[in-house]
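Long-time lurker, first post. I've been practising inverse folding by hand and with some scripts of my own, and I keep getting stuck on stretches where the structure tokens seem ambiguous. Below is the full token string for one chain I'm working on. Before anyone asks, I'm not after the true native sequence, just a reasonable design that respects the backbone. If someone could post their per-position residues I'd love to compare against what I wrote down in my notebook.
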């Protein structure tokens, strides 16, 4: 493996504000859509009542404990940490004229702490949350006015942190709005496809406006998109399966096509026409979309299969998507199929398609860890999963794919997005908290902590080809 990873490869980890920070009403923060989903993305949308509480309200208390956590990331040798800014810390309702200084000051402190250790921030502007005020008062991304509110927010944080943050992302897993519209675009789950695609269009325009603003305000910076990398294979070599696989892959690649190429592809025009989907796209929108991203970032957890006859097969949920299981792959405790070679394939697909640098900003294994009597946590299953995926990243680099970096999902245990669980653990660092919110929040290094430290220190040379 020696020598395959570039010299300045950005090794690190990735978290999200709403899954680690807690302090959900501290220092003037407003309510976000995430705050109204106490049981996670697939739970009910629940109005907040006085005295109620949810596990994300405290999460792992990163808001107060970040110096300790950043020091642990530095001990592993992180070059990069991906996190998000909670939009509601900056504009609590979303439509204010003036930002909340206390919220801005928190991220100043966080980025300064990272700078002490030479850790570069990779910052997502909107990670599975937006101000609930914009949903309640405007209808979320269904209203064109939200574009201007997002642009104001983006310009505010670019100006504030332009000397501290050089790598930015617009919307986390932007394609997931098709499957969880409240989380993605602030629309009711029962919204029809025309409403969802109109809201998505507004988000794509807002993304392009943020790209333009970043290029103006942070000229030496880079800004990318972020896709849920849901690569699909045909279940058989039947031409019908192949064609259906192409169609379903285009469902999510469409977002990258618009953000990287600057226009709606012809296949989407046909899709809209044949499905009676009406989307208002102005000439000004078309001009705005021509401001394209600098790099492609994506998550990768699993692959899936597609058949033209899905009613004949049981599906398995993985991340946000339902997929037909691949009979050649094993699965995790949560039924997510494990496919390291799929990551190499996906990297090649994206690089062939866009010819832009790629950044793997989420990849990891959720599992139930056991603390031994001596306090150790021997998570060899996590080490094996990550090792095998990183070996395939090295192979893709050898294929000629330009890969900027790799930030594993959840380097410290956090509240899971799908069901707001602590028992589904991803981290190299254990956090003493359970699904009921009990625990001391003490941090503890797992076996994988030392393994990842060695991977980073050796720039990937310590990885083992086990396949």
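-- Answer (accepted) --
I ran through it position by position. Result:
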């Amino acid at each position: 493996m020696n020598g395959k990873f570039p010299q300045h490869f950005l090794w690190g980890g990735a978290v999200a504000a709403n899954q680690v920070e807690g302090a959900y009403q501290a220092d003037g923060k407003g309510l976000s859509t995430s705050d109204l989903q106490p049981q996670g993305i697939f739970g009910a949308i629940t109005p907040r009542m006085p005295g109620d509480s949810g596990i994300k309200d405290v999460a792992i208390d990163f808001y107060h404990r970040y110096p300790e956590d950043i020091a642990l990331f530095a001990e592993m040798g992180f070059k990069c940490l991906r996190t998000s800014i909670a939009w509601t810390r900056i504009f609590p309702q979303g439509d204010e004229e003036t930002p909340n200084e206390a919220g801005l000051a928190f991220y100043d402190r966080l980025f300064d702490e990272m700078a002490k250790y030479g850790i570069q921030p990779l910052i997502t502007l909107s990670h599975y949350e937006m101000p609930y005020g914009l949903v309640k008062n405007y209808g979320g991304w269904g209203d064109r006015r939200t574009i201007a509110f997002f642009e104001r927010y983006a310009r505010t944080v670019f100006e504030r942190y332009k000397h501290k943050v050089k790598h930015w992302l617009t919307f986390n897993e932007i394609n997931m709005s098709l499957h969880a519209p409240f989380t993605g675009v602030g629309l009711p789950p029962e919204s029809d496809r025309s409403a969802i695609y109109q809201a998505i269009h507004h988000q794509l325009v807002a993304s392009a406006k943020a790209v333009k603003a970043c290029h103006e305000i942070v000229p030496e910076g880079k800004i990318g998109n972020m896709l849920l990398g849901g690569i699909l294979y045909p279940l058989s070599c039947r031409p019908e399966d192949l064609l259906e696989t192409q169609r379903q892959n285009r469902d999510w690649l469409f977002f990258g096509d618009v953000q990287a190429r600057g226009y709606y592809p012809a296949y989407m025009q046909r899709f809209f026409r044949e499905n009676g989907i009406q989307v208002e796209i102005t000439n000004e929108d078309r001009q705005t979309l021509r401001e394209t991203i600098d790099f492609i970032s994506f998550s990768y957890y699993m692959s899936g299969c597609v058949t033209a006859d899905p009613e004949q097969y049981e599906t398995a949920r993985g991340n946000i998507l339902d997929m037909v299981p691949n009979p050649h792959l094993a699965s995790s405790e949560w039924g997510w199929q494990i496919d390291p070679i799929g990551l190499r394939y996906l990297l090649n697909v994206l690089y062939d398609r866009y010819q832009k640098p790629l950044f793997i900003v989420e990849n990891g294994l959720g599992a139930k860890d056991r603390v031994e009597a001596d306090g150790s946590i021997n998570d060899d299953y996590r080490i094996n999963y990550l090792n095998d995926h990183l070996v395939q990243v090295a192979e893709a680099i050898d294929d000629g794919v330009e890969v900027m970096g790799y930030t594993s999902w959840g380097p410290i245990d956090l509240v899971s997005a799908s069901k707001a669980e602590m028992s589904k653990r991803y981290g190299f660092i254990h956090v003493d908290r359970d699904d009921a919110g009990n625990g001391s929040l003490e941090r503890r290094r797992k076996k994988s902590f030392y393994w990842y430290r060695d991977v980073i220190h050796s720039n990937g040379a310590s990885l083992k080809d086990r396949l």
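A couple of notes from the structure itself: Residues 70 and 114 are 6 Å apart (CA to CA). The two ends are 14 Å apart (CA to CA). Happy to go over any region you disagree with.
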